[in-house]
């Protein structure tokens, strides 16, 4: 349910927001309406105590907020945005007052909060799992802690929201410091957020130039995210070094726009000009230098000048206004310096005038300087105002080098009808964001960062949220499928009655082994060697006993193994011994969590069971335990899920429409093989258990030969007293039969009944 609009939110009084409450101060300052130079409302100046209290509250809130599931944190962001939408007009009015920007663009910024704060609410945190030789390494990302956001004055709402959204989605808490030039909208936005977020999760402190150093020096703030000038960014980075805070610095740029000879002049020239003058040039990623191919230079500059002369400069609510004032007097004076320098050097003005006209506000007409020299102030430095130089170019290599000859690298543009060629040029520009056939239009869905002195780290996009996290790697030496059985994960308990109750399978790996990996080859090598050993021991069965005439029984001649193959091999004396070795191999195969290996090896092991069984006197405990494990394994693989929990097996799809499916997994042919093996086994078990000379061979009390030190013995339930095996005979492979009957065409496989 969307929150209700609270009519008591006052847009004429402003406070710091600390620990969920509004707070004033003994000292105040005022912002300035840049259209009139008149003072606006009082704003409290935050103190060291305010910072300490806010950090304490944020630290306390972090302990719980960071543990809230990400989906629930994102739901809170969306809940706030529902509330935000009810106040768009009030915030647009307020933004016009503190920035002076045209209402149409103020309205766009207010609406844009939903994108910059809301995009992180659609993201998922990445997770990386790597298989190594003897372990699995899982990397997740955990929230950093308390974040300090130091925000600029040119887009006070968008750029604050662009820090708040990802920080909160990641699980951090945040303290926002708005610019002292534009404190009003940000303070009021954070005040509104208190209706949605828990106490201490989002706070705001306004102040003067002493407040930033308080945040950067505080030992309990984990990260500073700053948007602003390069000189201030360097100071912040130096201050944060004392406590090794994480920093994201989005700083200034001197962005180049390269115009190729094949462009449509009528359409392109106005776009290029708008890239330089949007928001009166007060955009960190605005076009600051324009390079036009010499073959179209004159007509292109002429068209830009015509468009520029028609851009209306005025107050926010003036009809048709496109450009507002410079936001503050400090920046106004700086921009005027570029005019006076260009005038003093005698540069040509294609549009605008060399002298900035006086007015009631900080207004400057948009101006184009025609072909100033490369070493001019207007080329070398960022004006951050409505004045831009334009130069011709003829050689592509040279213009790329000229565009890159700067200490900054925030954005760039390339204009050409040949998009592929424009992209090749763009790929060589040393800038964090390059725009093809468009002026600079950052998106909350795209990562935004600067090269060189334009910044450290980045924001936004699907990876910007990572800037608010620590990587957290956990190495898990879980059973890899080739570890000896005595160190395997103990089997899960089973609710199945009778002798099959001890037939639970061990817990498999969470992910299958990668095909062709060293780990998979190690497993295959282990299994092949040990299956071969079991087969040789079976081939030499009974050679440890003497016949009635005292000679040694040797059945090696019945096999394909030579005497040399069986040299030094101790043959099996009972199915209990063979079953114990086969059971351990079943456990190892199952723990691998790799269906492509499980299917083939389990079929081989099941065939060994039915082949070996008639060669020994019956040992029911071992027999039904081994068959029970095979039954559970085959039935699970046929369905693609754990039959006890219903969870998908490793390697099988969890998608709703493809649950339990595995491409290239249990094929129809393999199901037929399983069915044939099941039917054969049931017949053999009945024959063996009903043989006229039937006499159950005494088994070891623990159920396994030589396993007194086996930690799995108790978990397997080897101390179960089996006195009646009739039910177990009837239930051989019963789960597999049921699942095969559901998956194979034709009637359900019948249960073998013993008429005797």
UniProtKB/TrEMBL annotation:
Domain of life (superkingdom): Eukaryota
Region of interest (Disordered), ranges: 489-515, 697-719
Coiled-coil annotated spans: none
InterPro entries: Ald_DH/histidinol_DH, Ald_DH_C, Ald_DH_CS_CYS, Ald_DH_CS_GLU, Ald_DH_N, Aldehyde_DH_dom, LUC3-like, Tfb6
Gene Ontology terms for molecular function: oxidoreductase activity, acting on the aldehyde or oxo group of donors, NAD or NADP as acceptor
Domain Aldehyde dehydrogenase, chain residue ranges per copy: 27-472
Biased composition (Low complexity): 489-508
Keywords carried by this UniProt record: Oxidoreductase
Annotated catalytic residues: 250
Family named by the database record: Belongs to the aldehyde dehydrogenase family.
The name this protein goes by in its record: Aldehyde dehydrogenase domain-containing protein
Organism classification: Eukaryota, Viridiplantae, Streptophyta, Embryophyta, Tracheophyta
């Amino acid at each position: 349910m969307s929150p209700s609009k609270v009519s008591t939110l006052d847009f004429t009084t402003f406070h710091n927001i600390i620990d969920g409450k509004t707070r004033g101060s003994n000292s105040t300052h005022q912002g300035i309406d840049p259209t009139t130079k008149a003072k606006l409302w009082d704003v409290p100046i935050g103190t060291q105590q305010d910072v300490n209290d806010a950090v304490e509250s944020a630290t306390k809130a972090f302990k719980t907020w960071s543990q809230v599931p990400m989906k629930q944190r994102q739901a809170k962001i969306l809940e706030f945005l529902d509330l935000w939408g009810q106040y768009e007009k009030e915030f647009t009015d307020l933004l016009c007052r503190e920035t002076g920007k045209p209402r149409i663009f103020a309205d766009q910024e207010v609406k844009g909060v939903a994108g910059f704060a809301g995009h992180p609410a659609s993201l998922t945190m990445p997770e990386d799992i790597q298989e190594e030789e003897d372990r699995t390494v899982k990397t997740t990302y955990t929230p950093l802690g308390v974040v300090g956001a130091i925000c600029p004055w040119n887009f006070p709402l968008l750029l604050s929201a662009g820090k708040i959204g990802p920080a909160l989605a990641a699980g951090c808490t945040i303290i926002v410091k708005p610019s002292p030039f534009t404190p009003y909208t940000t303070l009021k936005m954070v005040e509104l957020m208190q209706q949605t977020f828990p106490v201490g999760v989002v706070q705001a402190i306004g102040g003067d130039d002493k407040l930033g150093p308080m945040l950067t020096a505080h030992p309990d703030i984990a990260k500073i995210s700053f948007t602003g000038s390069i000189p201030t960014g360097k100071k912040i980075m130096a201050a944060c070094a004392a406590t090794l805070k994480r920093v994201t610095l989005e700083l200034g740029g001197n962005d180049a726009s390269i115009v190729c000879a094949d462009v449509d002049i009528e359409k392109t020239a106005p776009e290029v000009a708008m890239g330089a003058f949007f928001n009166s040039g007060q955009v960190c990623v605005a076009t600051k230098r324009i390079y036009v191919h010499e073959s179209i230079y004159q007509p292109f500059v002429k068209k830009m000048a015509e468009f520029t002369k028609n851009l209306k400069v005025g107050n926010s609510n003036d009809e048709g206004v496109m450009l507002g004032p410079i936001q503050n007097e400090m920046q106004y004076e700086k921009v005027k310096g570029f005019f006076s320098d260009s005038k003093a050097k005698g540069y040509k003005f294609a549009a605008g005038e060399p002298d900035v006209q006086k007015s009631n506000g900080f207004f400057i007409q948009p101006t184009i300087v025609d072909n100033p020299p490369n070493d001019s102030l207007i080329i070398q430095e960022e004006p951050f105002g409505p004045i831009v130089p334009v130069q011709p170019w003829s050689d592509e290599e040279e213009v790329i080098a000229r565009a890159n000859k700067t200490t900054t690298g925030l954005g760039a543009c390339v204009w050409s009808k040949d998009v592929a060629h424009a992209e090749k040029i763009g790929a060589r520009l040393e800038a964090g964001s390059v725009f093809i056939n468009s002026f600079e239009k950052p998106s909350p869905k795209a990562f935004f960062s600067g090269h060189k002195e334009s910044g450290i780290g980045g924001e936004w996009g699907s990876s910007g949220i990572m800037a608010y996290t620590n990587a957290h790697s956990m190495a898990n030496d879980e059973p890899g499928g080739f570890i000896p059985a005595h160190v395997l994960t103990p089997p899960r308990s089973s609710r199945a009655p009778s002798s099959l109750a001890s037939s639970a399978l061990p817990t498999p790996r969470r992910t299958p082994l990668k095909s062709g990996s060293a780990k998979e080859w190690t497993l295959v090598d282990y299994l092949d060697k040990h299956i071969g050993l079991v087969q040789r021991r079976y081939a030499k069965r009974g050679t440890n006993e003497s016949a009635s005439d005292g000679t040694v029984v040797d059945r090696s001649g019945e096999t394909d193994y030579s005497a040399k193959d069986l040299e030094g091999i101790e043959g099996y004396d009972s199915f209990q011994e063979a079953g114990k070795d086969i059971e351990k191999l079943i456990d190892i195969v199952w723990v691998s969590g790799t269906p492509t290996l499980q299917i083939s090896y389990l079929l081989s092991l099941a065939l060994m069971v039915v082949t070996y069984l008639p060669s020994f006197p019956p040992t029911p405990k071992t027999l039904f335990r081994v068959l029970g494990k095979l039954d559970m394994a085959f039935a699970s693989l046929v369905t693609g899920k754990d039959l006890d929990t219903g969870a998908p097996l490793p390697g099988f799809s969890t998608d709703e429409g493809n649950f339990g499916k595995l491409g290239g997994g249990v094929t129809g042919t393999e199901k037929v093989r399983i069915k044939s093996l099941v039917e054969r086994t049931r017949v053999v078990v009945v024959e063996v258990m009903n043989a006229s000379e039937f006499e159950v061979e005494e088994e070891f009390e623990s159920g396994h030969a030589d396993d007194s030190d086996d930690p799995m013995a108790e978990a397997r339930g080897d101390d179960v007293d089996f006195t009646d095996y009739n039910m177990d005979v009837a239930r051989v492979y019963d789960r597999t039969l049921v699942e095969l009957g559901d998956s194979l065409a034709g009637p359900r496989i019948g249960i073998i009944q013993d008429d005797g």
